[in-house]
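Section 5: illustrative case.
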């Protein structure tokens, strides 16, 4: 297997969105609506197309792919990871494909994204600016189903982050002189115990004492995990960034808004 920086390849972005449409269709946010399997996969794929348009297209983010040569000689994508630098330049996207498939699910999932924006992303951005840090947000990463179970994500995530960071510096989006950290959000119980490379838990947020924790062992079937989010992080430029992640939980202290009714 080998790693490629795929940011400039529209075909690789399409493949990443296809993989996410399959992998994430099994997660809490996409199964909660009770849609049939085919519609759920189509809706999930439409959502990641929307996220690509809003956060990643036009050079706003980076895509790193792990490729492999199959036994029949064809090249396949085994793992994809998408990153955005400082979350600058977020634009609008086309919601129509999602709305046509599942109007209420579209409203619900975008409400959840808006809560993340207000309670996590905006706070991280303001804190990083005040501290003169730069940062990378891990938008998604996924192992293609045909290659699952081989610890590909665990093996390659750190190297993918290094490539994304170097590309951000090269493109002038991440000042080399500033300490840099990466963070990502876990909001699905199936991922609550998963680690990727050197990333570790830096904050565990509950919107209220009544929030059902993603790590709850006693949650009844069908329970909604709204209002719980686990933040994973890693220092990208360790030579500069001593102590960034230790300060991270202070960003969120006693400051979460009420989770939207979904």
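Designed sequence:
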């Amino acid at each position: 297997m080998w790693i490629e920086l795929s940011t400039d390849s529209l075909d690789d972005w399409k493949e990443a969105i296809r993989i996410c449409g399959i992998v994430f269709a099994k997660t809490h946010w996409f199964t909660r609506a009770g849609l049939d399997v085919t519609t759920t996969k189509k809706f999930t794929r439409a959502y990641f197309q929307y996220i690509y348009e809003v956060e990643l297209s036009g050079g706003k983010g980076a895509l790193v792919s792990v490729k492999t040569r199959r036994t029949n000689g064809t090249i396949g994508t085994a793992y994809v990871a998408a990153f955005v630098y400082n979350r600058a330049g977020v634009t609008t996207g086309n919601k129509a494909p999602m709305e046509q498939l599942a109007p209420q699910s579209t409203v619900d999932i975008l409400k959840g994204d808006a809560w993340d924006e207000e309670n996590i992303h905006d706070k991280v951005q303001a804190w990083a600016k005040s501290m003169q840090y730069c940062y990378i947000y891990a938008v998604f990463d996924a192992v293609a189903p045909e290659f699952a179970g081989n610890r590909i994500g665990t093996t390659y995530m750190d190297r993918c982050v290094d490539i994304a960071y170097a590309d951000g510096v090269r493109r002038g989006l991440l000042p080399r002189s500033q300490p840099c950290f990466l963070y990502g959000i876990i909001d699905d119980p199936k991922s609550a115990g998963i680690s990727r490379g050197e990333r570790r838990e830096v904050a565990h947020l509950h919107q209220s004492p009544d929030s059902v924790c993603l790590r709850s062992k006693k949650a009844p079937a069908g329970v909604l995990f709204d209002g719980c989010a686990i933040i994973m992080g890693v220092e990208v430029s360790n030579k500069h960034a001593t102590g960034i992640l230790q300060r991270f939980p202070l960003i969120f202290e006693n400051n979460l808004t009420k989770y939207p009714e979904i």
